Amino acid sequence: MNTNSPIVYIVDDDARIREALSDLVSLSGLQAAAFGSASDFLAFERPDVPSCLVLDLELPDVDGLQLQQSLISGDAPPIIFISGHGDIPSSVRAMKAGAIEFLTKPFDDKDLLRAIVTGIELDRAARLKRSELAILKRSYDLLSPREREVLPLVVAGFANKVTAGHFGTSEKTIGVQRGQVMRKMGARSLAELVTMARTLGIKIPGPA
Amino acid sequence: MVLVSELRRYGLAAISCGLALAVAWPSDAPTSCFFLAVMVSSLYGGKGPGLMSVVLSTLSYDYFFLPPRFRLAIEPSSYVQFAVFLTATLLIVGLVEAKRRVEEPRRQVAASVQRSEYYLAEAERLGHIGSYASNARVNPPEIRYISAEMFRILGFPAGDVPPTTEEAGKVFTAAGPENWPRIMELYETARREKIADGEFPAVLPDGSNRMIHIVAHTVYDAAGGPDEFIGTCVDVTDQHRARTELQKAFDEIRKSENQLRAIINTIPAFAWSARPDGSADFFNQLYLDYTGLSAEQATGRGWTVAVHPDDLNDLADYWRSVLASGEAGEVEARLRRFDGTYRWFLFRTSPLHDESGNIVKWYGINADIEDRKLAQDALRTSERDLSSIIEAIPSLVWCADPDGEVNYLNGRMLEYTGTTSGAWEQFGLTNFLHPDDVEPTARAWSGAIATGETHEIQCRLRRSDGVYRWFQVLGHPARNNEGGVTRWYGLLIDIDDRKNIEEALRNSETRLSRAAQTATLGELSASIAHEINQPLAAALTNSQVCIGWLSAQPPNVAKAIAAGERAVCTVKDAGEVVRRIRALFKGATLENVALDLNEVIGEVLRLIHGEAARRRVEVEADLQAELPSLVGDRVQLQQLIRNLVLNGLEAMDQVMDRPKKLLIRSRRHSPEFVLVEIQDHGVGLKEPDKVFDAFYTTKENGMGMGLAICRSIVEAHHGRLWAASGEDYGAVFCFTLPTRPLGTSL
Fold first, then answer.
1. CB contact A17 to B (< 8 Å)
2. In this structure, how many other beta carbons lie within 10 angstroms of the beta carbon of residue A84?
3. Using CB atoms, which residue from B534, B542, B562 is nearest to A14?
């Protein structure tokens, strides 16, 4: 198996379903990893590749909705629920909690595959975002405390003179610090730095 | 005084001479006047004043009367006259002086006798000693004289005439007739032995009781026969009384001393004393008998040989600390008996202080505590055993004060909760209870404390790892003679597994069988749907995958076949499920057995007990005793009642403003029918007539089959099922069932 290709996780207590779904996934050219229970899935060390989770609502240990709750934070894969009961309240709960699809058994393979593809794309985008953010954070960590103070003012568009006045230093010093910020953050332009600051969630002061 | 007396004497002489001159002046015989003056002066003044009056008289006579008059010179014719005068006066002085010389000693003796008598009387008065004299020649002796003090002693009015012997004797016989012969005996002794004395009680004429000491001293005549008794009487009442008291005190002291000695030597303890430096100086007999030491051997530090060698150092240290502190103390040590066996003793000592607070003595007793010690050891062992048992039994044990304060928890309890006793004291049970159980548990416990009745409740208790387990809490009160609760003893029995098994009884069989037994049709259908959907879903997917592999470029026939085979299998599975369900329904043939409907209701109530508790519903059963038995299918009737009860419970889920209460009542409706009513305080029925229709439901998840099934069960039993709205709120479901034995089929 290709270690970098996306993985579809399948959690269902019914071996027949697991088997059928695994085969379906491999037919579509993706990797499948099937588990009989939520705890087996949680115990599995997931590789760092785009993925999605096909989750049975009724599981013997922790039920699907609970597993979903426990996965909400962090880098959990998008979830596609499948259920033998398919009652409305649980499907609503599942969707509200961020599931991308809720399919009742028996379901059409095209519906499932479509959902799987969507899930993997979503995960891929989320991963990219997470890694970009991680890079930005690493760059931001390189800034000195003063440079971190200068950054919002620079991004807000204040002239060096104003900023220098604000900190009670010389215009020249601010100029140097501004250069440092740009260099350390790897920003090629002020516009890029502004985007970075937004991504990092830095509070940008309004015009004075 | 002497000078005054002298002046007076000489003054008298001078005055008498002056007076003589004054008297003599006008008379013719002046000499006799002067002679008188000289005589008076000499008689009252003595020799000196007499001579002075001689000189004065001679000079006056010469000057005033002898010629030449008014001159001291004497004519020769007067020489003789002068000489005669002088000689006469001197003679007078000489005669008077001579007479005085003769009379003076006699006068002095008389004065001395008078003084002596006065002294004697005074001495007698001061010494309360009376004296007497009596005739010894007669018997009884005749009283001749008694002193003034003796009058007083005998209580007679003072006088000169002594009382008669009879009168005096009465004073003594009044105190007892036997006194008279004793007094006579005293005098007889005195006659024989010269002196005798004795004390005799007396009652004086004024009625007072006295004690009189009589001394008799015999005076013998020349022939050696007794002549007179001279003696004294002394009132010794006070002395006698004092002596008697003293004697009594002495007797008492002797008695208490004897007692003390007896006590010290017989008390069942070893008594001893020690000097302030700690060296022993006394041991009672018991001590010595026990140790087999002699008093000499034991004294000082000798007694320590009897102390067990293992205890000696401790004892010595302790004794030193007691000596240093100067305060009472006690310590335990073993003492060797004369036969070599050691027994445990409690050594107790306390100091005796003098008035200034210095320790003058240490007193101590050693009490034999061997038996007590053994008993204590036995008790301790038994306590330890008991404690081990309590710690070892696989239950959580607790004890509480009458007011409910938990004061003991066994090790398992602490281990289970992962706490210490301290934490329990601080937080109590509440902290370890499941939040849902806190309130009912507290209520039940306060109820038990208030009524003193056995406490029993089920609750969930948090284990050290945070997991809650079900426990049966049992508390039993221990009572005193008056019936008051003295302590609560309790157990916490882990019933989690049992509870789980109970739960499993309800849940863990296959969903299908459970549904068939007890669930509503809604659950049943859902279960059936799931059981069939699973293989159907797998079959569908497998079929699609099969097609997928076949239509792949190039087609993967092997995989397609595998998928196809799986599809076949899963479809077969689905068929099997359907077959099983049909078999289930077919196999569930109804059994007609005689049964007691109350019993069936009881079974159902037990089954739904947990559910009711979870929903906080109080279930009350009002079952008529001796309900006629009926014939029917136990399982179906259980399902019927269970459905109706569960419906009632569910109907109260939304109820907040009134107690959640469900009443189930059984009655004999008519000779042929029994009636069961299930009344809830729930939301009530909007359309009581429609509820039994299939697919009628007010529940979010219901399929509307439960009550329809109920009706079909009742009707199969030839009974009737209906519903009505409750009086104030809620709904009542009623059904009747015939009591007479049914025919061959339902």
1. yes
2. 23
3. B534
Contact between B153 and B130 under an 8 Å Cβ cutoff? The reply is yes
Q: How far is CA B39 from the centre of its chain?
A: 104
Q: How many CA atoms lie within 13 A of B59 on its CB side?
A: 8
Exposure class string for B410-435: b at 16+ Cβ within 10 A, else e: bebbbebbebeeeebeeeebeebbee
- CB of B417 within 8 A of CB of B461? yes
Element (H, E) at B557: helix B557-587
ipTM of predicted complex: 0.70
Q: What is the mean pLDDT of residues B230-234?
A: 89
Structure-token pair, residue A184: 């350390």
* Chain A closest-CA separation from residue B535 CA (Å): 7
Number of H-type helices and E-type strands within chain B:
22, 22
What's the gap between Cα A139 and its chain centre? 20
pLDDT at residue B708 greater than cutoff 80: no
Task: For Cα atoms B125, B130, B136, give the angle at the middle one, nearest 5 degrees.
Answer: 160
Is B536–A24 a contact, with Cβ atoms under 8 angstroms apart? no
Number of H helices, E strands in chain A: 9, 5
Count CA within 13 A, CB hemisphere, residue A146: 14
Say if the Cβ atoms of A87 and B539 lie within 8 Å. Answer: no
Residue B394 structure tokens: 């696989």
B195 phi/psi in degrees, rounded to 5: -140, 140
Relative orientation angle of helices A109-142 and A171-185, to the nearest 10 degrees: 150
> And the tokens for B204?
């004086």
Given a cut of 50, whether residue B510 has pLDDT beyond it is: no
How far off is chain A from B584, nearest CA to CA, in Å? 21
SS3 B57: helix
A23 contact B CB<8A: yes
Using DSSP, state whether B414 is helix, strand or coil: helix
**Interatomic CA distance for residues B675 and B737, integer angstroms:** 7
Instruction: Provide the 10 A C-beta neighbour count for residue B174.
Output: 16
**Which of A17, A21, A89 is closest, CB to CB, to B534?**
A17
Per-residue pLDDT of chain A (208 residues; tens, 9 = 90+): 456 788 999 998 888 889 889 999 988 888 899 998 888 888 888 888 889 999 888 777 777 888 888 777 667 888 998 887 766 777 787 787 788 888 888 888 888 999 999 999 988 888 888 888 888 888 888 888 888 888 888 888 888 888 888 888 888 888 888 888 888 888 888 888 888 888 888 887 765 4
Cβ distance of A84 and B540 shorter than 8 Å: no
A64-71 vs A88-96: helix axis angle to the nearest 10?
10
CA distances from residue B12 to B103, B125, B576, B673 in whole angstroms, order as listed: 21, 41, 181, 164
